[in-house]
Amino acid sequence: MTGPSMSGGDIALDVRNLRTRFGPQHGGVIAVDGVSLTLRRGRTTALVGESGSGKSVTALSIMGLIEPPGRVIDGTVLLDGRDLRTASDREMEAIRGARIGMVFQDPLTSLNPALTIGSQIAETILAHEPVSAAAAHARAVTLLEHVGVADAAARAQDYPHHFSGGMRQRVLIAAAIACRPGIIIADEPTTALDVTVQAKILRLLHDLQQEMHASLLLITHDLGVVASMADDVLVMYAGRVLEHADVDTLFHAPKHPYTRALLGCIAGIEDDRTAPLQPIEGLPPDLRNPPPGCRFAPRCVHAVAACTAAVPALQTIADGHSVACFRAMEALGDD
Amino acid sequence: MSAAQIAPPRPFRQRHWRLAAFGRDWAAVAAALLLLTIGGMAVLAPLIGAYDPYEANNLLRFAPPGAPGHSLGTDQQGRDMLARLVWGGRVSLLVGVVPTVLASIIGLGLGILAGYARGIVDQIIMRVLDVLFAFPMVLLAIAVAGVLTPGVGTEIVSITIVLIPYVGRLARTATLSVVTMPYIEAARAAGGSPLAILLRYVLPNVLSPIVVYATTLMGLMIVVGSGLSFLGLGVQPPVADWGAMVADGRVVLRRAPHVTVLPGVVILAVSLAFNFLGDGLRDALDPRTGRR
Question: What ranges do the domains of chain B cover?
Fold first, then answer.
């Protein structure tokens, strides 16, 4: 580490070639297979993909929270030039919550039912900072106000079951930002919420990220969320990144057939209602026995012999736009 | 925003929701009052009552309840039943409560450790508990008590050992279901150390089933303790706990049923009271049953 000049001062987290396996060396599942991503300060990076594509596992691998029989088997996770994969348990405890905050998918079960809301947020502060319990609690109340919980001083005394889903997610966000981390990882933060609440939570996350000039890694399967929140987008499929682009490019000039197929699956309000949605035929591959070559090839309408013969590498085709497809540069018609 | 800063003082019911939840359960309140009364009488036994529980009076054997001077009658040696019940309670309650509390603490520690650490630690702890578990409860208590000198201390030790696997298993099962909850992962993602997670996230969520279970065990342990006394492995005559009184009275059951029935009723009432107390505590310990 020779200073920020090395790789640009705005890089908050640099993940290179991350690989995570569950189960034994032979016959195990490579849930994350060579994922690289860069989080920049003040920017939102979205990780998009279907269920089981390895989005959450990527997040947990970054946090060092993969439980045996799972294991991160390769790659680097650089935070300020420090590889988190070589960090000790103690160091990781100091980093989790303080440097990287995480918001989970299910606000109903992500809060301890036996502790009051205030003490749970205070718990995170006390784990990282040498402050008194009273000071931590006072800060918890301020944080609750900050995330839009009305009557925060009184509500801090309440238990999680007194809160609605949206309010609990606000509480989880308050806990995640309690120590002002430079990086926030939000794993499907709105999936379990009502549509009306989703927008509010996303707005809150966006405002906090801007205000703290933090990097937000937003994991979602919802392309609508991506369009409204993200600066950069990575599309994941079966453990691999298939396409990486800024949000405009991805929505207006997607190159990978999978990205294009995903976009074909969503209905726009202006769409011709007589034109049917285009589902992607087939199912994601069984990772215990992945198909050879490109993992999307068996479902891809543009697949050729080369696609099953070798794995297409993620290639940069324009500034900030990379695609893992042999036919990315061809003008492919949609079906 | 600034108006929200000033929180009005919350009503008593909200601040002390545990007490409020317990108070709503009239059976639990009644049970608690009964246990407090009986326990208080047992503790204060030397200060109350006009009779020595061990003093025989051959002129007044088998006096029925309501006899002058002996409100609950006398037994086959003319000893005052009320005095014997009060003094017997000292032993019975001690044997019911102390081993259960000890076994709960030890069993809880072992069970949480096994469920949280898993792997080899889990294997060792649980296999040892399984061996203890394989013996019938009373038989194991007899075996342990048999190798020690009879007495109250022996009773307490043997019942404690018997109970540890029961509490340990429950604690481990509860821990296993708690550690897979997303809030444990969330706590880890927030940088909680294993010890902090164990104490602040696992323990509070495992505690309430254990407390409820332990309360119901207390009634049962009074019965087990009585059994040990009956076999001569617990307290020795003339000291008697309630179980020993039942045992003594059985030979004169037809002539003076009250000698057997009275301690029997007390055992039943206390056991039931502990069960009702356990139900009430469950409501009081679970935040979800508090206010809405």
Answer: 17-45+93-289
What are the residues of chain B with a beta carbon less than 8 Å away from any beta carbon of chain A?
1, 4-5, 7-8, 10, 15, 181-183, 185-193, 196, 200-201, 204-205, 287-288, 290, 292
Give the gap in angstroms from C-alpha A182 to the nearest C-alpha of chain B. Answer: 14
pTM for this predicted structure:
0.81
Average pLDDT, chain B: 83
CA torsion sign, A214 to A189 to A98 to A32? negative
ipTM summary value:
0.83
- Chain B residues whose beta carbon lies within 8 Å of the beta carbon of residue A109: 181-183
What would the CATH number be for the domain defined by B17-45+93-289?
A: 1.10.3720.10
Interface test with A, best of B188, B199, B202 (most A CBs within 10 A): B188
User: For residue B239, what are its two tokens?
Assistant: 């000291």
Residue A91 touches chain B, beta carbons under 8 Å: no
Any idea of the CA torsion for A207, A209, A213, A218, to the nearest 10 degrees?
-140
Lowest mean pLDDT among A190-194, A255-259, B70-74, B163-167: B70-74
Q: Which residues constitute the domain of residue A46? A: 10-237
d(CA B44, CA B55): 19
- Convert the pLDDT of each residue in B241-275 to its tens digit: 888 888 888 888 888 888 888 988 898 899 889 88
Chain A environment of B288 (Cβ under 8 Å):
113, 159, 161
CA-based nearest residue in chain B for residue A62: B189
Q: What percent of chain A has pLDDT over 70?
A: 93
Q: Provide the domain count of chain A.
A: 1
- From the list B23, B149, B140, B42, the residue with the least C-alpha distance to B98 is B42
Residue A44: helix, strand or coil by DSSP? strand
Q: Express each pLDDT in A175-216 by its tens digit.
A: 999 999 999 999 999 888 888 888 889 999 999 999 999 999
Q: What is the pLDDT of residue A32?
A: 92
Q: The domain spanning residue A138 has which CATH number?
A: 3.40.50.300
Domain contains A31: yes
Q: CA neighbours within 13 Å on the CB side: how many for A220?
A: 23
Q: Which of A96, A111, A112 to mutate to test the interface with B (most CBs of B within 10 A)?
A: A112
Count CB neighbours of B180 within 10 A: 9
B50 pLDDT tier (thresholds 50, 70, 90): low
Q: Cβ B186–A172 below 8 Å, yes or no?
A: yes
